[in-house]
Design goal:
Number of strands: 10
Shape: globular
Strand order of the largest sheet: 8-7-2-1-9-10
Largest sheet: 6 strands, mixed
CATH class of the largest domain: Alpha Beta
């Protein structure tokens, strides 16, 4: 059984569309009303890494890759995506129209960037502590809701990313070191994604989601906030709304795919972060090769 895994923010780079068919890029430009394809192809990097551009750029490249795979007869029986990648997975499954998804993630990025003033929030990676210990550490570092942090991404292989108010994140980093974390590193991000601080962005996104049609899913998509496959179109909007402030349960997602019978997967999009995590979480899953499928 094969799964497609769609990457999230952080996997972008200028020129990442090289060798891909161009139809999706033209469609994205038309949907957004500006040349996203030029930013993808030429940069500058600072423009590509703006959250409002990064998100539709990665989605567009990911779906162009899925098209390339389909042209060679490579399809999947289940899909999952890391954060932003859940939108790509939903496009692949037929739940969201590509143009709608491009507009949604452009707005999602805009809303997330504007939700928290610069300097108020922070994110950090903690490596070498189990998930339960990181949860407890965040609780200890959070005196109240006005100065709190929480696990944002349970990436697996002993890696958990935390997010929240800067002071709480910094306290949690110190506590994690005291508890024996192998590595504690502040992340150079523009906002504390997947934390309660994203609530204003979640509410704005919910209003936009209401305008979008969700179609029946051809294949199940594992939701970030539940780590369970969903094929019910009526649940999609609520799951995407909750995803903005909820944790990405990636380790459970991959473990669940193994239980469901997945023995092969492709990382469909730029980068190889998910392939690396998958190999560490579930070495039984064979990762398909993307490079040979160009052209």
């Amino acid at each position: 059984m094969r799964a497609f895994l769609f990457p999230g923010q952080g996997s972008q780079k200028v020129g990442m569309a090289a060798g891909l068919l161009r139809a999706r890029f033209q469609e994205a430009d038309e949907a957004l009303g500006f040349s996203l394809s030029k930013i993808i192809d030429e940069g500058p990097e600072a423009e590509l890494t703006r959250t409002a551009n990064t998100q539709p750029a990665i989605l567009t490249v990911s779906i162009a890759w899925a098209d390339q795979l389909a042209a060679r007869g490579v399809t999947a029986e289940v899909a999952a995506g890391h954060s932003l990648g859940e939108y790509s997975a939903l496009v692949y499954a037929g739940a969201l129209e590509f143009a709608d998804a491009v507009r949604l993630v452009h707005l999602r990025g805009t809303f997330m960037q504007a939700a928290v003033p610069e300097g108020v929030g922070a994110m950090a990676a903690i490596i070498g502590l189990d998930s339960s210990t990181v949860r407890d550490t965040c609780s200890e570092a959070s005196p109240d809701a006005s100065d709190a942090c929480q696990p944002a991404n349970f990436n697996g292989a002993g890696q958990v990313v935390i997010a929240g108010h800067r002071g709480a994140v910094e306290r949690a980093m110190l506590l994690a070191k005291q508890k024996g974390a192998k590595l504690v590193k502040a992340l150079p991000v523009s906002a504390p994604f997947h934390s309660a601080l994203m609530a204003p962005a979640a509410e704005k996104l919910r209003a936009e989601l209401e305008r979008v049609k969700v179609s029946p899913l051809r294949v199940p998509v594992v939701a970030n906030v539940t780590a369970e496959p969903n094929q019910d179109p009526s649940r999609v909007k609520d799951l995407l709304y909750k995803q903005v402030t909820g944790s990405v349960r990636w380790e459970e997602t991959i473990a669940g795919l193994v239980k469901a019978g997945v023995d092969e997967a492709y990382e469909v999009g730029p980068g190889a972060v998910l392939a690396g995590l998958c190999k560490r979480i579930a070495p039984s899953i064979k990762m398909g090769k993307m490079g040979a499928l160009h052209g």
